């Protein structure tokens, strides 16, 4: 079954939890559905799996319903990718979230993405490696997505902000404060705020948002790996138009020691010289 998917039996029902949520399979189709999911390894074509389950016509109909429900996919959809299990799990989740009529073009869309990288060398290098493994292009020229990882030695906000505002890209920002990772804001081309607004809000600590300056401390290998993995997923989601709405315009801080987190919304600053976001 797709990675990240789990099944549990409750009487005659089978509950499946996966990238698209939790569903209960009931009735005559429950057992063949469970058998089909269990037998699907993500690499064997469904045409070879279906005959091993039972009546081919019945099982094929069950497979079609599972595909439509986002619980299963034809492995041919990911045949263009030669990746490890971590990257494959990421791709499976994104693929299954798409409407069925958009899945056939999934590989082409992913491999046509261009991501511009700015900031912390260690994190952006790992991000570049992940994106290259997926067939994406990394370039600051005409990007679909701009990723900025702040550090003391990184390109400053003003430079990145101007590059993003001059593009039609989605911006994904991150920063590492020792063991604390900050993701956001994520800003679309139509956002009414920018990184200059973030700087102003930090300086003013406006409206109790607690967007205060913090020292940028060197990140460990663990923090760099975590941050680059999250940014890979967000870059792909941004390029595919699958960003969760609740992430846009927000900052999320996660302490990797305690897993405590907090979040805040970035509002545009009236009269901002960069974006005029609050007008």
From TrEMBL:
UniProt xrefs under Gene3D superfamilies: NAD(P)-binding Rossmann-like Domain
InterPro entries in the record: Bacteriocin_synth_cyclodeHase
Domain of life per record: Archaea
Region Disordered, residue ranges: 19-40
Descriptive protein name: TOMM leader peptide-binding protein
Organism per entry: Haloarcula onubensis
């Amino acid at each position: 079954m797709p990675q990240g998917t789990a099944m549990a039996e409750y009487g005659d029902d089978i509950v499946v939890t996966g990238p698209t949520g939790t569903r209960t399979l009931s009735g005559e189709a429950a057992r063949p559905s469970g058998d089909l999911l269990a037998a699907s390894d993500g690499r064997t074509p469904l045409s070879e799996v279906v005959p091993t389950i039972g009546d081919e016509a019945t099982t094929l109909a069950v497979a079609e319903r599972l595909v439509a429900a986002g619980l299963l996919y034809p492995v041919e959809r990911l045949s263009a990718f030669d990746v490890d299990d971590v990257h494959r799990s990421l791709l499976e989740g994104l693929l299954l979230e798409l409407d069925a009529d958009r899945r056939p073009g999934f590989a082409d869309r992913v491999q046509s993405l261009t991501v511009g990288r700015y900031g912390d060398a260690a994190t952006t290098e790992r991000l570049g490696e992940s994106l290259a493994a997926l067939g994406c292009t990394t370039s600051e020229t005409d990007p679909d997505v701009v990723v900025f990882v702040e550090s003391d030695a990184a390109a400053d906000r003003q430079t990145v902000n101007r590059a993003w505002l001059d593009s039609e890209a989605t911006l994904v920002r991150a920063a590492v404060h020792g063991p604390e990772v900050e993701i956001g804001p994520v800003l679309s081309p139509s956002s009414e705020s920018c990184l200059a607004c973030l700087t102003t809000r930090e300086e003013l600590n406006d409206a109790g948002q607690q967007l205060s300056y913090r020292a940028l401390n060197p990140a460990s290998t663990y923090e760099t790996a975590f941050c680059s993995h999250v940014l890979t997923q967000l870059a792909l989601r941004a390029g595919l138009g699958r960003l969760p709405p609740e992430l846009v315009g927000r900052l999320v801080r996660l302490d990797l020691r305690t897993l405590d987190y907090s979040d805040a919304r970035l509002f545009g600053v009236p009269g901002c010289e960069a974006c005029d976001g609050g007008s």
